[in-house]
């Protein structure tokens, strides 16, 4: 139980990082020493290994299932996933209120997190070739264009939510790139944190006799996002992992340059909300950005010797 509690708390710290655009949950996994175990467990998952479970009366079949579960480290994944989920559920409400009620300091903070993360990750590219410069420029242009579109009226339909889940889950295997950052760039951050808060409120409200309809409505969106995350974990995450293994510098240059191009979004959010509240001043935005930069540099200081 002590080991499971420790894993749960490490998962909670990962989930906390993934709610905020900047430091990724994978970076936290490196810090707390479970990154390798996490990747091994994810890549060991094979749905075909559960076929013997269709014959539960056969002792040999049950033994095969137990062996498969141990090989896939399922207990570890469940404890870690519960910790991550708890952090996301608890903190998404805080971040949603912050982003919608105090947009200037919140997006100023996001700007500092993203900008500092990009600088830190750029240092990992030892040599800039023409190809890497080209890839970086393309990524900046793509992110700049996409965030320009998503700052307006962006779709929150099932397909977009599904894609957002599939893309955001990559943060679990990519140290340095946050899942919340991907939601931000796709224009789904405020929407998904709000929907998750509505779902939790609806579930809790059932105990006091509230209607079931809001739970079904928000729960459907959360489920679609979850399905996208599961599929993304076994498709996009593996594709990105393969690209990092074969073309590490170019892939890293592309991913980090997305962060640079996406800085357009927090800048426009800050600029568009100046003066809306007492905290909506340029000075507050600068202070918040400085705090974000400091947070990333502090994490980088204690993870500088880790192998990404």
Automatic annotation (TrEMBL):
Keyword Transmembrane (UniProt): yes
Keyword set includes Transmembrane: yes
InterPro entries: VCA0040-like (IPR007163)
Leader sequence segment: none
Highest taxon, organism lineage: Archaea
TM spans (from-to): 74-92, 104-122, 134-152, 158-187, 199-216, 222-242, 249-267, 279-299
Assigned keywords, A-Z: Membrane, Transmembrane, Transmembrane helix
Protein name, UniProt field: DUF368 domain-containing protein
Organism the protein comes from: Natronorubrum daqingense
């Amino acid at each position: 139980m002590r080991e499971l509690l420790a894993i749960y708390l490490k998962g909670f710290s990962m989930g906390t990082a993934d709610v905020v655009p900047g430091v990724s949950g994978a970076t936290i996994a490196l810090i707390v020493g479970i990154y390798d175990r996490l990747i091994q467990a994810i890549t060991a998952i094979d749905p075909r290994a559960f076929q013997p479970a269709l014959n539960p009366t056969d002792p040999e079949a049950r033994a095969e299932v137990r062996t498969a579960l141990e090989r896939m480290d399922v207990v570890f994944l469940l404890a870690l996933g519960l910790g991550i989920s708890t952090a996301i559920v608890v903190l998404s409400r805080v971040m949603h209120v912050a982003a919608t009620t105090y947009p200037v300091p919140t997006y100023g903070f996001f700007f500092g997190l993203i900008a500092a993360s990009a600088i830190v990750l750029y240092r990992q590219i030892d040599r800039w070739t023409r190809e890497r410069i080209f890839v970086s420029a393309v990524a900046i242009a793509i992110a700049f264009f996409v965030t320009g579109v998503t700052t307006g009226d962006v779709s929150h339909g099932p397909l977009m939510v599904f894609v957002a889940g599939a893309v955001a889950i990559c943060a679990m295997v990519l140290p340095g790139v946050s899942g919340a950052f991907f939601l931000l760039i796709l224009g789904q951050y405020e929407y998904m944190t709000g929907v998750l808060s509505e779902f939790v409120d609806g579930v809790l409200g059932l105990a006091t006799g509230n209607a079931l309809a809001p739970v079904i409505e928000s729960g459907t969106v959360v489920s679609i996002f979850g399905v996208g995350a599961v599929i993304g974990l076994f498709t996009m995450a593996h594709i990105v992992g393969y690209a990092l293994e074969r073309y590490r510098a170019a892939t890293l240059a592309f991913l980090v340059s997305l962060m640079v191009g996406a800085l357009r979004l927090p800048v426009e959010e800050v600029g568009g909300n100046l003066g809306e509240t007492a905290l909506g001043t340029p000075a507050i935005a600068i202070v918040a950005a400085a705090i974000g930069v400091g947070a990333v540099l502090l994490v980088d200081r204690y993870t500088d010797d880790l192998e990404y």
